[in-house]
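Supplementary Note 3. Input sequence used for the single-chain structure prediction.
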Amino acid sequence: MGIIIVGVIAVLLLFWVISCQRRLAVMDENINNAMAQIGVQLSSRFDALTALLDLTKGYAAHESQTLIETIKSRRSVITATSTPDDVLKQEGVIAEALGRISMVAERYPDLKANQNYAKCMNAVDSYEKMVRASRLIYNDSVTKLNRELRMFPTSLLAGAFGFRQRDYLEAVEDKADMPDMK
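The predicted structure, written as discrete structure tokens, is reproduced below.
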């Protein structure tokens, strides 16, 4: 009778360990997916910025070419394994480019009135909104994983399974100071 009880306890413990590992794996994968989505949206935003820069070539050719080269050299791909710091660096590149495009647009009212310019700016704005939504999803997913990792008894197994707490995507403070591009 004692062997049966020990066997049942061992099986229940095994099921709990498997369940715990699976739950942590799902949470970890949700974070990776959210980061990959941010990467896709940042890439689309860079494409919209490139189209916008092409429009400015006719107005400020040298400045546009310099900015295009700067963006291409500083652009990196955000993937599921990227860190929040990688995302912040890419957002900094985008913010710098938008600021410089805004300066060009202010000097050339014809550019600002151009319909293609307005469409490109709307696309950039639309991708920015998607990035914000994805940041919220990412941070929510990180919260769930980090909370689970801190709770006993899951915390005992998490390290053995290779799970670790993840960093949040912090807000970019200078976004409030970004120029109005419309």
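Confidence is low (pLDDT under 50) at residues 175-179. The chain is about 80% helix and 0% strand.
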